[in-house]
Design brief:
The chain is mostly helical. Helices cover 78% and strands 1% of the residues.
Length: 457
C-alpha cells in the first residue's frame, strides 16, 4: 500500500493535487457526457425533423458561451474575495442540484410539454451550470496554486490536466451515445449530477491554504465591485507577462479556430477522403495532445516555461502550414497527430507562467480577463473563417510554382504564418516581461512583491 501511495504521489505530484485531479477528472467526464447527450437528445428526439433543429441545437452551445462572456469578469472579482475552497464546494452543490433538476424533469414524456418550454428550460439550466462553472474554474485554479508550487510542478499539474481533458474528449462522446440510446437520457444526465458529488467529496478532503486560514489573520477589507474589477484590470494591463500571454493566446485563436471549424471541409476537398473518417482526426489530436501534455513537465524542467512556450508556438504554426499542403488522408492524420503535441505543450507551459505572474489575491480576476477574451477571440475567429469560406474565398483557386492553393488550405497556411509570428513575438516579449506589483502593494509594508517570472524554478 505504501508503495502504491508513493507511486501515486510521484505521478500526481502530491496527495492534495491527486484528490483535486480525481474530482476534476470525473466532473469533466460528466460535463462532456452531459453536453454530448443533451445535443444528441435535442437534435434527434426533441426537435427531430424540425427545419430549425440546427438552431435549436446551437442554442445549447450559445448558452454556454454567453455564461463565459457575461458572468466571467464578475465571477473573477468575487472569487478573489471569497475562500477558494468554499467557493469550489458551493459551485459543485449548485451544479449538482441543477443537473439533478434537469434529470428529474426529463422523466416527463416529451409530448407533455411544449417544445418551447423544453428548450427554454434546457437553455436556462445549461446557462446556470456554466455560470457556476465561471466561479468554479478560478477557485480551482487558486486551489492548485496553493497546493502546487514551482514552475516545474505547476507545468506537470497543467500537463496532467491537459492529458486528462484530451482523454475525456476521446472517451466522452463515444460513451454518451450508448448511454442515451440504451439506458435513456435520464440516466446519462444523472451521471453528470453524480460526478459533481464526487468532485465535492474530493475538494472537501483538501484543507484550505488561504492566508486567513493558515495564519489566523483577519480577512483583508474589500472595496466595491467596480473598484476591485478596475484594480484587476490595472494590474493585468501593467503586467507585461500577462499582456504577452493574452496577446499570443488571441493570435493563436485566429490560427487554431479555423482548424476546428474548417477541417471537415479540408478532409473532403484536400485529403480526398470520406467525411466518415473525420472522427479519426479528433482521435489523432487527442492522442497527440495526451503525449504532449505528459511530456511538458520534463521539457519545462530542461528548458524553462518561457522557452517551451515560444518554441511550441512556432512548431505549432509550422505544423499547421505543413498540414495545409497535405493531399493524402493518412499523411494528414500523421501531421495532425504531430501538430497536437506542441499545441498541448503550449497550453500546458502557459499555466505556470500565469500562476507565477498573478499573486493569489488576483488569480480570479486574472482568469476573468484571460478566459473571456480568449473565448471571444475564438468565437470571432470561427465566424471570420466561416465567412471567408462562404463568401470571399468560396471560388478561390490558384496555382503557384506548381502548387495548388484552394480556399481552406490557404486559410490554414495563413493561420500557420500568424502562429509563427506570434511565437517569435513571444520569444522577445516574454524575455523582457517583468511582473508589475499589484495596485496598492506599495502601501502594504512587509508584503512580498512578485518578481520576474522565472522559467527555471
Amino acid at each position: 500500500m505504501s508503495s502504491l501511495r508513493r507511486l501515486t504521489d510521484w505521478a500526481l505530484i502530491s496527495p492534495e493535487y491527486a484528490r483535486l485531479w480525481t474530482g476534476q477528472a470525473v466532473s469533466s467526464l460528466g460535463d462532456l457526457v452531459f453536453t454530448t447527450t443533451l445535443v444528441l437528445w435535442v437534435g434527434t428526439v426533441l426537435v427531430r425533423e424540425e427545419p430549425w433543429a440546427p438552431a435549436a441545437v446551437s442554442g445549447v452551445l450559445v448558452s454556454m458561451g454567453v455564461a463565459v462572456l457575461v458572468v466571467g469578469p464578475l465571477a473573477g472579482v468575487l472569487v478573489d474575495r471569497w475562500d477558494a475552497r468554499r467557493t469550489a464546494l458551493g459551485t459543485e452543490v449548485v451544479r449538482g442540484v441543477l443537473a439533478g433538476l434537469l434529470t428529474v424533469v426529463v422523466f416527463v414524456p416529451v409530448p407533455d410539454l411544449p417544445i418551447a418550454v423544453w428548450l427554454v428550460l434546457i437553455y436556462l439550466i445549461v446557462f446556470g451550470l456554466n455560470v457556476a462553472g465561471q466561479f468554479f474554474q478560478p477557485a480551482r485554479f487558486t486551489l492548485i496554486r496553493d497546493v502546487v508550487s514551482g514552475d516545474v510542478d505547476r507545468a506537470r499539474a497543467a500537463g496532467i490536466a491537459q492529458a486528462t481533458a484530451q482523454t475525456v474528449t476521446i472517451i466522452g462522446p463515444p460513451l454518451a451515445a450508448p448511454l442515451l440510446f440504451t439506458v435513456g437520457v435520464q440516466w446519462a444526465l444523472m451521471f453528470n449530477a453524480l460526478s459533481y458529488a464526487v468532485s465535492f467529496v474530493a475538494i472537501r478532503s483538501v484543507p484550505s491554504r488561504s492566508p486567513e486560514a493558515t495564519s489566523g489573520l483577519p480577512r483583508r477589507e474589500h472595496g466595491g465591485m467596480v473598484t476591485e474589477f478596475a484594480a484587476g484590470l490595472r494590474f493585468f494591463r501593467g503586467n507585461k507577462t500577462l499582456v504577452t500571454l493574452l496577446s499570443i493566446a488571441v493570435i493563436g485563436q485566429y490560427g487554431i479556430a479555423p482548424l476546428d471549424t474548417l477541417n471537415v471541409f479540408f478532409v473532403a476537398d484536400n485529403l480526398n477522403a470520406s467525411t466518415r473518417l473525420y472522427g479519426y482526426m479528433g482521435m489523432a489530436l487527442g492522442i497527440g495532445g495526451v503525449i504532449g501534455a505528459l511530456g511538458t513537465g520534463r521539457m519545462v524542467r530542461w528548458f524553462g516555461a518561457r522557452n517551451v512556450t515560444w518554441v511550441g508556438i512556432v512548431l505549432l504554426g509550422v505544423g499547421l502550414a505543413v498540414y495545409s499542403r497535405q493531399t493524402d488522408f493518412t499523411a494528414g492524420l500523421v501531421v495532425l497527430f504531430l501538430l497536437a503535441i506542441p499545441m498541448t505543450m503550449v497550453n500546458t507551459a502557459v499555466a505556470p507562467l500565469l500562476l507565477g505572474a498573478a499573486p493569489r489575491e488576483y488569480v480570479g480576476r486574472t482568469t476573468a480577463v484571460f478566459t473571456p477574451v480568449t473565448r471571444l477571440a475564438g468565437m470571432l475567429a470561427t465566424l471570420v473563417a466561416g465567412w471567408l469560406l462562404s463568401s470571399v474565398l468560396r471560388d478561390f483557386s490558384v496555382s503557384v510554382a506548381g502548387l495548388r492553393l484552394g480556399p481552406v488550405d490557404l486559410i490554414f497556411l495563413v493561420s500557420g504564418g500568424l502562429i509563427v509570428v506570434s511565437g517569435l513575438y513571444a520569444r522577445v516579449a516574454l524575455r523582457r516581461a517583468v511582473v508589475a506589483p499589484p495596485p496598492g502593494a506599495e502601501d502594504q509594508p512587509g508584503r512580498p512583491v512578485p518578481g520576474p517570472v522565472d522559467g527555471r524554478s
